[in-house]
Structures are given as structure tokens and as C-alpha cells.
Amino acid sequence: MRELLAHAASLGIAVHVAHLPAPFRGFYDGEKRMVVYDFTLTLAERRCVLAHELGHAFHDHRCRGDKAMEDAADVYAAHLLIDPVEYARAEAIHPSVDFIAEELCVEPDLVRVFQRSITRLRGVTYIRPRMGARQYRHSWSHA
Predict the structure, then answer these.
(1) Which among 21, 76, 94, 141 could bridge 55 via Cys, Cβ 3.0 to 4.6 Å?
(2) pLDDT tens-digit readout, 63-86
């Protein structure tokens, strides 16, 4: 959580914990530049909700309920919380989404978002293409 709080500070976002009415788990207030998340969340839920709301802050989203904005915040959260090397290690132990989520202390839905950003070709997994074709930030082979 310290890394997430430091990241929030680097974005100029204050983070608060409160009791939120169901079904709300957290929200981003763009006018006040703050994120609030529910104090009853588990550690994995806290991490995911905070990272998701920081995605809204990063993208300067001001309205609620827009699917494209929610998807962008999810992608931001997945890449903020899931280290590709740690993901590869967990996936090599067991490919189950639930297992990987538990190992990485994130929610299974965030693992699924992360998995949509990877490309598998001939026994090698690639992530985050950079600077054109065949140039990737991370890759790993499947043994």
C-alpha cells in the first residue's frame, strides 16, 4: 500500500478511508483531487480499488459510469499493480486466474484485464509492445 500511497501523492491525490454505502467500494473526486475507499475492503480489494481510482485521476476522468473510462481505469490499475516478472512466476506455478490473483494480492478481475494486454506466440508471452513490431518491454518463454 505504501507504493500506492506514494503514487497517489505523486499525482497530487489525497487518499481517504471511510464507510461507503453498498455497493460503492471507492470513488475519485476530481474537484477535490481525492480518492476515498471503503474501510471494510480486504487488502487485495483496497489495492485494486485505490489503483483503479488513481487511474481515473491519471486520466482526469470527471464523469461516472462511462464504460470506456472504467475500462481505462482498469487497465491503468492492472499495469500499476501487476509486475510482469511476478505474473510470469505465478503463472508458471499454476495458470489459474484465482491462484495468480492470490499470489499477486489483486482481485481476479484485474488479472483478467492484465491478461488481455499480453500476446502469446509460439510458446513466448509478450507484454507492452513498444516502438513498433517485435519490440516488447517484457517477454517470457513457456517451458
Answers:
(1) 76
(2) 777 889 999 999 999 999 999 889
**In sequence order, what are the residues at sequence separation of 6 or more whose Cβ sits closer than 8 angstroms to the Cβ of residue 35?**
8, 13, 14, 15, 16, 26, 27, 28, 29, 50, 53, 54, 57
Q: What is the DSSP letter of 129?
A: E
| Co-location of 60 and 98 in the same domain | no
- Considering the domain architecture, whether residues 51 and 10 belong to the same structural domain is answered as yes
The last residue of a domain, from among 36, 54, 81: 81
Distance CA 36, CA 41 (A): 12
Q: Label the pairing between strands 26-29 and 118-121.
A: unpaired
Strand order of the β-sheet with 34-38 is 14-18, 34-38, 26-29
Question: Domain check: are 72 and 38 in the same one?
Answer: yes
66 shares a domain with 10: yes
Query: Which set of grid coordinates corresponds to residue 53?
Result: 481510482
- How far is residue 127's CA from residue 83's CA, in Å, rounded to a whole number? 11
Say whether pLDDT at 140 is over 80: no
Instruction: Single out the residue in 31, 51, 81 at which a domain terminates.
Output: 81
Structural domain including 91 reads 84-141
Answer whether residue 9 shows pLDDT above 80.
Answer: yes
